[in-house]
Here is the input.
Amino acid sequence: MNPARDFHDRCGQLLDRGTNFVSVTLFDVHGSAPHNAGGKMIVTADGLHFGTVGGGRIEAKAIEMAIEMLGDHSKLAATTWVDWSLKADVGMTCGGRVKLLFERVGGAEWDIAIFGAGHVTQSLARLLDTIACRVTCIDPRPDWIERLPLSVRKIVTESPPDHVDALPPDAYVLCMTRGHATDLPVLKRIYETNRRFPYIGVIGSRAKAAVLRKELSQAAIDPSELTFYCPIGLPIGGNHPAEIAVSIAAQLLQVRDQQKSKFSSSNSTNK
Here is the structure.
């Protein structure tokens, strides 16, 4: 029996099946701890799949964090580590410390959902095709949808708001439909179902944003919840669809990195 070979065999099997997982390595131990450095385990969305980093409370806390990494990519980077005091952070009576390395494997790290497949979306999708993200586009027009890159997940539907519920909780959502009348139902569905996406953006002017906020408030949506971006994109470039697309992609990256940095800072202060 070769534990290292078994570990890598299990990783290969999960990759072959297309199953995302987190590899957890106990890479440093100080004082009293239930396992020596070098312990490894694999965690899937269903929980512990293989191996151990010591069992008990340490392992339970590590599994919980690994599952969180699999479920909400906006909160934790693909690779992160923790330095836990077994007494203060884990609730154990022994006075040791452990350092654990978490590595998420498989799947795109960033979900972006775009409602509308018009000119700006066509340019934006080609930009996003060059970075590590998974793009879904929802639109009732099959001719526009089919122009998008092959990597884009394409949904042709006469009722785009019906697809809000199926979006991942960490998706970045863009409303870029043919106009106000088709953007509003998507936004209304988002706020009615209390979907707290890390980014919600609507293409348009400040005047359009004011009208949307007024109509959503009239539909009994709490005004304090209406935190969407409109206009979207950084204040760069002109009004050509390709330049607008660049400004939107830049803002998406900016917000993503700010959120990761904020979470990392919060996590480090709680150690």
